[in-house]
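PROTEIN DESIGN WORKSHEET
SECTION A - STRUCTURE
LENGTH: 254
TOKENS:
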């Protein structure tokens, strides 16, 4: 008589162990592999669609749009204006610009990669917001009155690229910030260059546009400028280019 076998015990397990690992471990491994693959796809897609979104939000037209802010009239190329709603001629309270530097150029397809660059070490873009002045003094004028009193007494000033670097005190609200300034070239009271830069602790990710300065120009205008920290290495040129750019926007009376 043929012996009876337990068919359930003899049938192979639907999740066999392999290479010494239990089936549950292999299942977890496959799930992690799928997640990693999806993450890679999302990174690639995010870069692609992020670039496409930037292209769709920026204009490539260099035609000037005339804007009136306070007592000043500006001609601003359309492809420099970040927000579509601001690309309307007439009276406005503010305009936000994004430029490729040092060409001081607006967005165009040949510079698409530069406008999408998110590496703080290589980015060449600058953000400039122009509005009616809200303060009596610009950053240069606030050096002694504000920043001099907010210096971190525990950190000595140090020279960087011909600038004086002054660590600001977090107790005054300046977290991870350093002030950079150069004395006036002609012996005046105001510095020739000044900027505040975010400098996070070691291991923390740096900001794309870590530095900020502001300038008064025209009769009533203030420009707030954000730029990458590596521009500090050639600060005198950058300051000169900023002056030329801002004054070039102005429409002067005949």
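SECTION B - SEQUENCE
RESIDUE ASSIGNMENT:
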């Amino acid at each position: 008589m043929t012996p009876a076998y337990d068919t359930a015990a003899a049938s192979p397990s639907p999740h066999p162990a392999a290479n010494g690992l239990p089936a549950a471990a292999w299942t977890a491994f496959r799930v992690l592999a799928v997640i990693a693959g999806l993450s890679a796809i999302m990174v690639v897609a995010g870069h692609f669609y992020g670039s496409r979104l930037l292209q769709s939000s920026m204009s490539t037209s260099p035609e000037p749009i005339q804007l009136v802010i306070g007592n000043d009239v500006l001609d601003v190329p359309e492809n420099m204006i970040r927000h579509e709603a601001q690309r309307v001629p007439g009276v406005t309270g503010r305009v936000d610009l994004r430029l490729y530097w040092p060409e001081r150029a607006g967005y165009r397809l040949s510079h698409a990669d530069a406008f999408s660059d998110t590496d703080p070490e290589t980015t060449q873009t600058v953000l400039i917001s122009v509005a009616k002045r809200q303060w009596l003094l610009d950053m240069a004028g606030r050096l002694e009155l504000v920043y001099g009193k907010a210096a971190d007494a525990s950190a000595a000033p140090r020279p960087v690229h011909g600038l004086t670097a002054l660590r600001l005190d977090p107790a005054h609200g300046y977290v991870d910030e350093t002030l950079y300034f150069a004395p006036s070239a002609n012996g005046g009271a105001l510095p020739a260059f000044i900027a505040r830069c975010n400098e996070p602790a070691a291991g923390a990710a740096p900001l794309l546009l870590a530095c900020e300065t502001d300038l008064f120009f025209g009769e009533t205008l203030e420009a707030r400028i954000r730029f990458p920290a590596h521009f500090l290495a050639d600060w005198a040129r950058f300051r000169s280019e900023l002056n030329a750019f801002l004054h070039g926007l102005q429409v002067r009376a005949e």
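SECTION C - NOTES
Helices lie at 7-10, 23-57, 112-115, 235-249.
The CA atoms of residues 155 and 167 lie 6 Å apart.
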